[in-house]
Amino acid sequence: MIQDELKRNVARAAIAHIVAGEIVGVGTGSTANFFIDELAAIRHLIRGAVASSEGTRRRLEGHGIAVLDLNEVERIPVYVDGADEINAALQMIKGGGGALTREKIVAAVSGKFVCIADGSKLVPTLGHFPLPVEVIPMALGHVRRELTAIGGRPELRGDFVTDNGNLIVDVRGLEITDAIALETRLNQIVGVVTNGLFAHRPADVCLLGTADGVQTLTAK
Ligand code: 5RP
Q: What is the CA 68 to chain-centroid distance, rounded?
């Protein structure tokens, strides 16, 4: 089965988690895009959506789905988003699409995080995928030196500016044995907006697309 079919299958399965009459938090990326396309078919059943990026906002609006500002909303029952890597504790690396900060904000306001991913994203240990870090532009040199000092190999993502007007540094070589501790530590570097570890707020459920169907994982 090709990867896009697996993504479409998990996107479809995520619809069962939507709470009728409520707001849905919507992630960013190719898997989230499949979810948006599925959401379009039931848009009359939801109050609207909160988008985790400008790209997601445009796609939602293109389907006629009302997009609300997060500050107009107090509660989002369910957030649906993809991941670059996910482990058995449902901790994730995210930010391959550069939307990590807004994704983390929407996830923080959401009661349930449903991760949708094809089977290739499930890993025993996080860190093969380079860890995205969003950086305030004037702090780039400082943040790079700090990341190098803790054993990382930071690389500036070329020709890329986030929706917040910042830069992304992709970091290889970090040993992620304690994702919660590393998430905290990286966020202490002055000039870092946030990093792509979602360990303090992992997913609650992962819908994993495999050749044998969609598996539902909960944290181990
Ligand atoms: C974007 C993300 C995405 O969820 C992540 O990159 C996965 O993307 P895809 O579904 O295209 O594989 O974190 O910032």
A: 19
State the pairing for strand pair 48-51/23-26: parallel
Environment class of 97 (CB within 10 Å of its CB; exposed 0-12, middle 13-18, buried 19+): buried
Query: Tokens at residue 22, please?
Result: 């409520």
3-state secondary structure labels for all residues of 14-80: HHHHCCCCCEEEECCCHHHHHHHHHHHCCHHHCCEEEECCHHHHHHHHHCCCCECCHHHCCCEEEEE
Lining ligand 1 with CB less than 6 A are 27-31, 81-84, 94-100, 103
Sequence-distant (6+) residues with CB within 8 A of 2 are none
- The predicted-structure confidence for 21-45, as pLDDT tens digits, reads as follows 999 999 999 999 999 999 999 999 9
Residue 54 known to be catalytic? no
Amino acid at 174: L
SS3 assignment, position 179: helix
CA of 20 to the centre of ligand 1 (A): 26
Nearest CA to ligand 1 atom 7: 83
Distance 113 CA to ligand 1 centre (A): 14
Q: Which residue in 38, 103, 134, 146 is the catalytic one?
A: 103
Give me ligand 1 centre to Cα 44, in Å: 26
pLDDT tens readout for residues 104-134: 999 999 999 999 999 999 999 999 999 999 9
88-105 tens-digit pLDDT: 999 999 999 999 999 999
